[in-house]
Queue: 3 jobs
Job 1
Amino acid sequence: MTVTSSAPSTGDSVPDTVPARWAPDLADSNHTAEVTKHLDNVLPALESLRSQSGRLAGWGTELAKRLLAGQRLLAAGNGGSAAEAQHLTAELVGRFDDERAPFSAISLHAESSAVTALSNDYGYEEVFARQVRAHGRAGDVLLLLSTSGRSPNLLKAVRAAKERGITTWALTGAGPNPLADSCDQAVTVEAISANAQEGHLIAIHAVCRAFDAEVAKRAGSGPHSYGARQP
């Protein structure tokens, strides 16, 4: 059996039909059970976050206070967690929902030249720690994301942050784990790795929601001048 393509032919090398196996009937897929299982596994992640909603709200509020005072957020992760760290910093430099001022937030993995130079010269385990020493100041916040909570480069970043008086937060998968234990505060998502990572995005948006609410509250309390970044 073949399925006729509606696309115009551009030459003899391009067939006008494709095998039926390339265009399966998605309704007849036998992988629905796997998809349903994956979606069901999101629920424990959500419940885990719900039980820590107070901490997430506290992070958003505290982050607003510090960034309004001129402090900075540094964020880091590896792989998918790096993408989520950058998602958070983009929300702060840009905006989440309503229009507001931009705030200083840096994803430590995002500058490819620095990351590759540091990895080459000092080893990948030092790639975030050295940037923390370069960009961080006392009173800043370092947020580290990891589903395993065991990445050596993140653990070294925590130590570098503590040396400089930087507050450390961890967003991890199931606890206990070394990263959650070493940071000042942690939110652990009690779920398997993929679902924990999905939970991290929800947690990031929850923090942004609280952050924006605190910024709006302080803006509504009277004239406000944003704090200057200290050298």
Note: The longest strand covers residues 141-146.
Job 2
Amino acid sequence: MQHVHTPADAVSKLKKAAKLRVRAAPGTLHAYALDEVAKEAGYRHWKHVTACAMNSGSSTLAVATARTCTSDRFSMQQQDFTIVCGPSGSGKTLMAYDYALNAVREGRTVRVADVGGSYAKLAEVVGGTMLRVNSIGSNSQAFGDVPLTVVDFEGAKAAGAGALDAGSFPFVTNADAGEVWIIDETETIPFSQKELRLILERHLAAGGSVLVTMQQSPESALAQALAEIPTRANVRRAMVTLSRFRPMR
């Protein structure tokens, strides 16, 4: 899936290309020409183009992430381990959105762990999957086939489920090497520090990338505990501190 959002001008160009193809070969069906130009542009078929175009105009979030607000500065390499520290409103989630969308555009699978529904709209807009975890299990809602899954632990936390163990973490059971994991507001996720370290260490060792965000400072016990996770030499490590929100230009 290389096209999460398709702006209107791109759709217009594809339509013009299809018309030119029909004019050049009068026996060609217009629907067939649309499918062909769509496939050549990297889409699955013409309906894939229109679905992406509908997504890009469906909400303020979609319009923003479809164009200039998504920055290539926040794209991940094949193996990244990034810890982002900053107060509420400093732009941590916006940065995580960019990681997620850039990774999906590159064809990578993205999984997000969250508490409070901050990524629910993202899953809906791009056509991903929403998985809500509670104290007795989970329920899922698929909005499409984009390889982006948001796991919200609000139900488990609200029910007082306590710290879950690594075996119950939804990412672990079917994770593949090369996936991008985003753990948002890490201190709110209902896992013990020990279990979280174990989960992330295993994923990094398997070839995955990880971005974690937290409201605590880089000097906090949690930030330092995660920073000390051992990784291979080829893993690019970074600690980012955001002091206040600065809109990207």
Note: Residues 72 and 102 are 7 Å apart (CA to CA).
Job 3
Amino acid sequence: MLHLGRDLTAQNQAKWQSYSCGEDQKIDVRYYKSDAGPTAQIRYQGLNISAPYSPELSDEDVSAFSNGELTWTVSNFVQTDFYQESDGFLARHEKVEGAGEEGIVDHLLVQDCMPTK
């Protein structure tokens, strides 16, 4: 596993990070250690979800946290501290059916998110 998240605390001790995003939108995220490993709790326009780190959706460039319905993704530039990463975006995954086939469509809810100090 990546060395990301090695210094994460329990959820009740994790600090919130505010992000300023495109189109004057805001999102708050905190990163903590759970039984599932590194986890992100995301607050955005009334949503309040927790999503575990997703090795399947992450790579050397991005770290992704997904609960299957929503995915929060940030860059993987610093590689040791989620709180310092930028270029965040939140996507909703929706199942669609067309021409007899089922697929997944991603809808970007917020993008270009940079941490605020």
Note: The CA atoms of residues 19 and 115 lie 4 Å apart.
